[in-house]
Amino acid sequence: MPKQNLSNFTYANHVKLIKGGVDFFQQLTLAIEKAERTIYFQIYIFDEDGTGRAIANVLMAAAQRKVKVYLLLDGFASQGLSSSFIQELKDSGIYFRWFKSSFKNKKFYLGRRLHHKVIVIDSIKSFVCGMNISDRYNDTPESIAWLDWALYTEGAASIRLEQVCKRRIKDYSSSEHPKQESEVESGKKCAVKICINDWVARKSEVTKSYLSMLNKATSSVIMMSPYFLPGYQFRRSLVKAVKNGARVQVIVTGVSDIFVAKYAERYMYDWLLRNGIEIHEYKKHVLHGKIAVCDGQWVSVGSYNVNNLSAYASIELNMEVKNEEFASYVERQLVNIIKMECVQITMKMQERDTNFLKRMLHALAYNFLRFMLFLFAFKQQE
């Protein structure tokens, strides 16, 4: 990959990739238990199940020991929380707020979703991920977790991320004496940048980051994304990456939680295969992770799905990392998943398994979903 523009990056950072499931929730719980001053916790879905209750308990315990806990949940996706549960959170000392849309009902709403998943602890530690707080993202006796990822960061990027969280809840208080970037241990050397998509704020940083990555790729691109429905600009950049000599591999889910999204996604298979893009279906369980790696140098992790809902409607946040050691590690993880837990879809398989009726259904689902993605946020898509 050619030399990259490293403006808006911070460098005094340590990063770690965490796979979803019990490992993520254990590390998140430990970090909350060690919190001393502040916790900013902003999540799309918070379910009142075993996992939700466990995280709520450690947040309430933190608030009771005088840690300032700011909890912001999407008012549509988390509307299933009981009033008693919410009151318990508030009574413990948690500053609880809803992110609300202007027009909504039980099935859909028109407007922005707070789809990002961000936790910042004591201004210096942070988690940015695709996981929501729900049993589906955890390993339980009943089921293994959906496949997902988190980026854990210690350092200057977390200080900036806390400012993002404060602006999201319109809290401009400086009374908490947050850490300054100059205070971060100088021995930490990893370039990290916050990328935000928010159409109201006219931000499309995650989309632009992905397009820049594809346009500059020279050797390899691996993207993992559920609900993979790239728009016109994205498709053009995918083709450019292939023409520039990059091997482009896309990991999608074989087992989807939204059947219409999977039907629409399969409509894209012919186009992807004709343009030299490899398709690998993850078969072990539902895939929910949003992560990409390019040329062994660039990684993006967060809440961004490759579709027009994330590009134009939802509030999304990804962390972009430029570090060869970290990128090589991420690439090895994704390559291993492709080898061990995926089935590659070939043109021969596609022609064999797709008859005229299926093509019609795929086309209908694709066109229906593309239209709806511009207008509404489906309750089921997480």
Descriptive notes:
The protein is an alpha+beta fold and 382 residues long. The protein contains twelve helices and 19 strands. The strands form three sheets. A nine-stranded mixed beta sheet has the order 11-10-17-16-15-12-13-14-18. Strands 1-9-8-7-2-3-4 form a seven-stranded mixed beta sheet, with helices on both faces. A hairpin with a 3-residue loop joins strand 5 and strand 6. Helix 1 (22-33) runs parallel beside helix 2. It is globular, with a radius of gyration of 20 Å. Mean pLDDT is 88; it is low at 1-5, 103-109 and 377-382.
Please write out the topology.
Layout: E1 13-19, H1 22-33, E2 38-43, H2 50-64, E3 68-74, H3 83-91, E4 95-99, E5 103-104, E6 108-110, E7 118-121, E8 125-129, E9 149-155, H4 156-168, E10 191-198, E11 203-204, H5 205-216, E12 220-224, H6 232-243, E13 247-255, H7 259-267, H8 269-274, E14 278-286, E15 291-294, E16 298-302, H9 308-312, E17 316-322, H10 324-341, E18 342-345, H11 347-353, H12 356-375, E19 377-378
Parallel strand pairs: 2-3, 3-4, 12-13, 13-14
Antiparallel strand pairs: 1-9, 2-7, 5-6, 6-19, 7-8, 8-9, 10-11, 10-17, 12-15, 14-18, 15-16, 16-17
Helix pairs in contact: 1-2, 5-6, 7-12
Spans where pLDDT lies below 50 across 5 or more residues: 1-5, 103-109, 377-382
Class inferred from helices and paired strands = alpha+beta
What is the β-strand count? 19
How confident is the prediction overall: mean pLDDT?
A: 88
Output the strand order for the largest sheet: 11-10-17-16-15-12-13-14-18
Cα(first) to Cα(last) distance is 33 Å
Shape: globular
Total count of helical runs of at least 4 residues: 12
The portion of residues assigned to helices is 25-40%
In percent, how much strand structure appears in the residues? 25-35%
What composes the largest sheet?
9 strands, mixed
User: Radius of gyration, rounded?
Assistant: 20 Å
